Amino acid sequence: MTPALGRALILLALLLSTVGSTVAFASGRRPTAAGLRWTRRFAYAFAAAIAAANAVMLYALLAHDFSVSYVAHVGSRAVPTWVSFVSLWSSLEGSILFWGLVLGAYVAAATWALRDDHPEYMPYATGVWLATAAFFCFLLAGPAQPFATQSPVPADGPGPNPLLQNHVLMAIHPPCLYLGYVGMTIPFGLACAALLAGRLGHGFLRPLRTWLLLPWIFLTMAVVLGGWWAYEVLGWGGYWAWDPVENASLLPWLTATAALHSALLSERKGVLKGWTVTLVLGSFLLTILGTFMTRSGVFNSVHSFTQSAIGPTILAFLAAATIFSVLLLALRIDRLAPEGQLVNGPGRDALFLLNNLVFVLFTFTVLIGTVFPLVVEAVNGAQMSVGRPYFDRMAVPLGAALLFLMGVGPALPWGRATSEQVRRALLPPTGAGLGLAGLGFLLGARSPWTLLTLFFGGYTAYVTFVELWLPVRQRMRSGEGIVEAFAEAQLRRGRRRFGGYVVHAGATIVIVSIAVSSTMGVSKEVQLREGERFDLGAYSLTFVKAESVAEPHRNAVVARVGVSRNGRELGEMTPRMNQYDSQREPIGTPAVRTFLTEDLYLSVMNIDPERGTLGLLAMINPMVGWIWIATGIMALGGVIALVPQRTAAASRPAPLAVPAASGAAAEGSR
Amino acid sequence: MRAASWGALLLALAGLALAQTPSDDPRGVVGPPRGQPLQGAALETRTKQVAALLRCPVCQGLSVADSPSPTAQNMKAHVRELVAAGYDQDQILAYFERSYGEFVRLEPARRGVNWLVWIAPVAGLLLGVGVVLFALRSPKPAPTAAAGVDPLSLPEDPRLAAYMLKVRELAYGWPGGVPPRPESR
Amino acid sequence: MNRRVLVAGALVVLPLLAVLVMNLGRDPHSIRSPLIGRPAPPFELRPVGGGGPRSLASLRGKPVVLNFWATWCMPCLEEHAALTAGARRYEPGVQFLGIVYDDEEARATSFLKQRGSSYPSLMDEGGRTAIVYGVAGVPETYFIDASGKVVSKYAGPLSPEVLAALVREAGGAS
């Protein structure tokens, strides 16, 4: 019964999205009040149908209904309830179903938020959203059916991949990633609407920017959460390996960030509208490419789902969407004529362009590197790799360039600056830059890139702090207290600006922390017997004992390691080696202890409880904790910038009563 | 005696000639060591450096330096031996490439088609700078006042916008205040 | 129609799509061995349980089936029966050899005593021979023809049918 219900709901969602998309596009060409209303209704109805399908799947997972094929693949009676819950997105079909849920929620939310505005754009936007939704419903109804009937019904299932069961981030990272990824559909629809309608007015740039910022916040968190998860779970001590699936999550983030900056210029000066729209379209298309990379099995990745018929289908959609976007741009971009002019010369305008250049170059480089092995194999059959050393080499100067631009850009005034202004703006922060670089040097930094990054970091931190402080000081001059000045200047009036600089502050810390953690860490691999100890930096580590632990779904050998720092006892850390029934090779779980400026990271290489031996990898990773914290700061900045200003948040216009105005208006227009 | 030593020499030469195939002895594959033998901390650092450029053939997502699998551990130990014997990085990478294929190099070797992936970012940079300069330099005609104002755009304030729509409806008869066929700017 | 945008878009999009289409169906995890078609790397290793060293060169003149295995590897246990039977079937025309990968001699000895063996297995000190052969994991089997050239490599447990086919390909008559 349950599988049939699920299938019916998916078919219903497919029907609603297909018909709704048609109605919406028709409404766009010939707008009527009824057409707009029905467009919205279809949007809400689709969201409801797909949400219901997800609810049915959740119920089936939690109730262990193995007649549903997806539950038979990933469900298990032996796993904790939260694992059953997150199994919704742990494997291919379920993840597409979850994609549909998030898309439905976004479409409903955007439709509702923009229900009274922009009637010349909204039908087109809704049409694009529902067309995308129709594709995913098609996947669910065809190649990636989660609700096929499993017959005979098994008594139990294998449970999800063990690597997905041993950390709480499994519950957080995928939903966050989907909220970011899927959310890019909304600005894509808005941008297509602008192109289809043939213009991009100032009033429409606002919602475009807002609905680009919202998924951006989630995507920022998701990319870094993925790294954090890898760091805590995999045991090699790093957080980013430039794996194709990791790159897939990064690519749309890069273009979306570029688009946010370009949109700022478009709103402020009315320029680069076509370029902003292009970046927004690109961000969405990169999410579809990312989905293809993850689910097609074509790319060599540790994260990929197994290959299935879904790959070619997604590729077909990618091709269609991309060709549609290029054609639409070619046909309509000239109508998005600029209302102002970019100023040539040193000033913030030029720096915004450089910002976009670096982000697009970064995107291009990561994309080429990820796809290159496929190119070579297609050309001459050779199997080669483009791995971490290549990407690190490319990313370092690009990251440093971004940090530099974050410092110089806000320091310079808008428009063309005189050399005197330039000098006055750019000179003072160098002191802070030299200070931070000097501090790094004293603490042991020797790599030239690290020192350069530290210099830029200090520079940018100074500039960002000044930008955050100046409006407050301005208000304080007229007698306000600091708290009131802060609240008024930054929180009530200048939220977008304030949020932006908070994001910059977070990003500065992230880049500096990445540079420091990559080059200033130390590590040691030792073979120990029980009772032996060794030193690493300020820490003294003693291998106490190896213990075998039996848990319901796995057997583990735990290494108890006593830790002390500068003589002070800090307790025990317990890295372990887990043997899951379903996996041939054992999987290690590292032990991580975070201090203010560094992490102590222990990973088991080999362990034998009978002989009492342990092969331990011990690392000190400086500043890693700050990467996670600073990403939270970036997200917070985004949220601050997202909250609409008071004027726009004012009451929705009441239905207008314009009783005898028809006569009066006719009179007045003469 | 002399015949035997000539015979040995001939055999050695024949062995060198057959040095197409990988063998236990790296000399046969990559020639004598080109660098200095290392030991102690320098040895460990260099080993880690070179191992970080080799791909673990088992886990495939990690380098030999990072991977916990036994294959990687063996490869790393072999790298350490080679570094200690004085082989330089290129030789060691070539040695492993003989056995595992080009796949095992994490950084694309700079030869043949692979040059594309090294040049592409630089080419992209040059192209991008060119585009930026073009965007900043091209003298656009000053936009006229008419082009500056979108006749169909609505004010930001939603209440004003609602009134605008109503006015358009009254003035032009557009349903909902929206023109039946949106004109181009 | 903005020609520049159209051309730029086409230049970016079409090659990317083409590359993706051409790679559909490829399995990125199966890496071809560079040894195929080249002379098999020489080795000289000690048999499990003692005895004089055996070299590959001494087997020149007949096809060789070289199987890398370990006692801790489940699929190796699976294919052991097929290999043992195969050796009995094809010898003396074809020589079967095992190389123990990353394991202890004592365990290998007791395993072979328990399960029986019809061909010698050799100990690979430090895994050097495995590295030279490009072994990524076990079980992996190399099929070498009578002239000493590697004809094929099979990764994974061998079934009798696959074994027969690959032995035939290497020139071993049944």
Description:
The complex is a heterotrimer of chains A (670), B (185) and C (174). Chain A has 670 residues and is of the alpha+beta class. Helix content of chain A is 62%, strand content 11%. Chain A has helices at residues 2-29, 33-62, 69-74, 81-86, 92-113, 122-141, 169-181, 185-197, 202-233, 244-269, 273-295, 310-332, 348-380, 388-411, 419-426, 429-442, 448-477, 482-493, 495-519, 624-642, 661-668, and strands spanning 522-529, 533-536, 539-551, 554-565, 568-573, 576-580, 587-589, 591-594, 598-608, 613-622. In chain A, strands 2, 3, 4, 5, 6 and 7 form a 6-stranded antiparallel beta sheet that branches. In chain A, helix 5 runs antiparallel to helix 6 (122-141), helix 10 runs antiparallel to helix 11 and helix 18 (482-493) packs across helix 19 (495-519). The longest helix of chain A has 33 residues, at 348-380. Among the domains of chain B are: 14-108, Cytochrome C biogenesis protein (Helicase, Ruva Protein, domain 3, Orthogonal Bundle), CATH 1.10.8.640; 152-177, no CATH class. Chain C has 174 residues and is α/β, with parallel strands linked by helices. Chain C has one domain: Glutaredoxin (3-Layer(aba) Sandwich). Chain C is built from 5 helices and 7 strands, in the order H-E-E-E-H-E-H-E-H-E-E-H. The termini of chain C are far apart. In chain C, 40% of the residues are buried. Chains in contact: A-B, A-C, B-C. Chains A and B meet through helix 9, helix 13, helix 14 and helix 21 of A and helix 6 and helix 8 of B.
